[in-house]
Amino acid sequence: MIRTGIMGGTFDPIHTGHLILARYALELLELDEVWFMTSGNPPHKRDTKHTDAKTRHEMVRLAIKDCDGFMPCDYEVKREEYSYSALTLKAFNEMYPDREFYFIIGQDSLNYFDKWYHPEEILKYSKAAVYPRRSEVSLEDEIKRMEGLLGARFIRLDAPMIELSSTEIRKRVGDTKSIKFMVPEAVEKYIREKGLYQ
C-alpha cells in the first residue's frame, strides 16, 4: 500500500508553516507522499470571501514544485459543488485502492471535528492525524474527547506549534509589509505579480 497524506486547506495563500508541518507528517507517519489538496468551494467558509480556487492552487503548485514527496491535488478545485472531505476521501478510496490515506488536520479543526459533514465517513476512509495549534485545551485532552465522541482513534503528530497564518500574510501584503520567509519565494513573486491581497 502507498501511504498517502492528505493536507487540505484553502491555502489563501499557502505558507511555509504548511510546508514544515507536511514535512513532519511525512516523516512521523512514514508516508510515501503528501497531497496538498486545495479546497475548491469550502462549505465552512461560504460566508468568507477568498481568492478563486485556481489561483490558490497555482500558489500551491509553485510552493511545492521542488519538494520531494509533495504533490499538488486539484480534485476539489475542479468541482463546482461544496467540497466535503468525507465525499472526497470516499472517492479517493474508490479511485486509488492501492493507497492508505492519512487525513492531516490542525488542533483548531479537531476542536469541532464532530460537527463536520459525516466525520465518521472521514474516519472510515482515512486515518486522522492531528498537529498542535494554540488552544486552551491540550491536544491530548482534545483527542481523548473526540475519540470518546466518535469512537475512532486520532494520531497525535509531535510537530512544532507554528503560529503563522494565511490571514496574517494577507494583512501584511495589504499593509505593504514584507512577507519574505513566510511564503516560498515563488509564491511571493506570484502574489506581487498578480496584485493579490491589495
Task: Tell me what you see in this structure.
- There is one protein chain.
- Helix 2 runs antiparallel to helix 8.
- The mean pLDDT is 95.
- This protein has a 6-stranded parallel beta sheet with strand order 3-2-1-4-5-6, sandwiched between helices.
- The protein contains 8 helices and 6 strands; from the N terminus they run βαβαβαβααβαβαα.
- Helix content is 39%, strand content 17%.
- The protein has one domain: 3-Layer(aba) Sandwich (Rossmann fold).
- With 198 residues, it is α/β, with parallel strands linked by helices.
Q: Unreliable segments (pLDDT under 50, ≥5 consecutive)?
A: none
- Compressed to H and E, one letter per element, the order equals EHEHEHEHHEHEHH
Q: How big is the Rg?
A: 16 Å
Amino- and carboxy-terminal Cα gap: 45 Å
Question: Strand share of the residues?
Answer: 15-25%
Q: How much helix, percentage-wise, in residues?
A: 25-40%
CATH fold call: Rossmann fold
Short description:
The chain is an alpha/beta fold and 198 residues long.
Helix and strand topology:
Blueprint: E1 2-9, H1 16-28, E2 33-38, H2 53-64, E3 70-73, H3 85-95, E4 99-106, H4 107-110, H5 119-125, E5 127-131, H6 139-150, E6 154-156, H7 166-174, H8 185-194
Parallel strand pairs: 1-2, 1-4, 2-3, 4-5, 5-6
Helix pairs in contact: 2-8, 3-5
Features:
198 residues; alpha/beta; Rossmann fold; six-stranded parallel β-sheet
